[in-house]
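Thread: Newbie trying to understand structure tokens

Hi all, I'm a second-year student working on a class project, and my supervisor (Dr. K.) asked me to get a predicted structure for one chain before our next meeting. I've only ever worked with sequences, so writing a 3D structure as a token string is new to me. If someone could post the tokens and maybe explain what I'm looking at, I'd be very grateful. Here's the chain:
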Amino acid sequence: MRFFVVCPGGLEVALAKELATIAQRADSKALGAWVIDPTPTSPTGGVGLAAPLSAAMALNLHSRIASRVLLQMAESSYRQEEDLYKLASGLAWEEWFSSEQTLRVDVTAHRSPLKSLNFATLKIKDAIVDRLRDVTGDRPSIDTAFPDVRVQAHLTATHITIYLDTSGEALFKRGWRDEKGDAPLKENLAAGILSITGWKPGQTLFDPMCGSGTFLIEAAQTVLAIPPGAIRAGMYGDDAKSSRLAYRPLVTSAHGFGFQRLKPFQANGEEKRWVSLKEASLAEILEKRKQYPDVQSLMISGGDINEKLVSMFKGNWQRAQLPELPVARQIDALVSKPPANAHEGVMLLNPPYGERLALKGGRGRERDNDGEDNYESEESEDRFAHNLETGRQNAKRSSRESLKKLQAEDEQDPKFIEFLQQFGQHLKDAFGGWSVFVLTADMALPGQLRIKESKRTPLFNGPLECRLFKFEMHQKRDPVVLAE
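---
Reply by user tm_fold:
Sure, no problem. This is what the structure looks like when written as tokens:
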């Protein structure tokens, strides 16, 4: 089978490495042979691979960076809308889902000659429901909000590819986040950034502006081998501390993943493979718990000036099935210090907008510079699949423009600029020997910190273009005392 694994723009290399790691797992090898496509040399919004059908289960369970796992159903040339209808109606959809299930169809395009993507979407939808009506005597209902089955199609100038979505809800929705505050950084983007930094379990990780804890929770789960899909897979049963407000009920074990609603995955053999994958993961978690018996052994910590967010971080930590409470406290980043006995390590942060910096626990913009509209617009991220430029053109403009407006306001805020200058000096004074990584949409950040970056990596947080800046903080030399 052919798959296309979607990821945030700029994380293709990190995703390819992760897919190779998943493919080398013993439980993945037991499913059959995997062949991963060459690593993309330019942004493509994902990575393709050939693998057994069962691989969809392992990918959805284990990939921290993927947004969706798409199963390729057909590919063909086309010239007009009727060609789309002909291709889609010729596929045996009845072998994958029933007419009692609800359906959603999405279409993306790059340089397609067709005048209307809406009309193209309608033709594919009609082809699917007409096929099921002809075969079963009934047609499925359309549900654009919470469908049982998602079909996606991508149009180039000459070809169409049709996919079945095996993920359902986007994979960055892990199921552990409390949604009471403004929307934070997407979990899969945070995981990809961790990969880019080169941080490894056993190495000190610190976030002085941790907000609701996305970076730190993703890191802690990585250390303890907790799969990102553990809650949705029902691995913790009734003991899971999933929030009633965790995005939507669809991301709990009650609904799980998209593949669980497709007929081939409901066969006895596939269900046994699914159980085996989860059992193997649980055994790995138990072994890691022995290696890291308490929260201090994780060497992961953070702080934030906003007391409400620190409290939210602690709740998210527990719902993510992590031990005890996180090492986190309410503190101004300008007076933060390296964790005890940590002379070097990795600092990773996504600075908030300037307005929040003056708050001790109250109101204002309460987390990362991506905004709620941006976070929830997962469909705009899906448009990065196959071609990043398509995603840029089709991303929600209102979200992007509002974010840029907020960014511009803060760039001009003298207090915010003063804070960045003070924080840059604090990094030089207190974090010598550390590698500091900052995710921001502000391309002028190094100048505002007054630190020269050693590397900058382009990334996309939904529709918002960002940079991951790396700063190498050098140890301060002791002053030389000249003999009189």
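A couple of things are worth pointing out once you decode it. The longest strand covers residues 68-77. The first helix runs from residue 12 to 23. Feel free to ask follow-ups in this thread.
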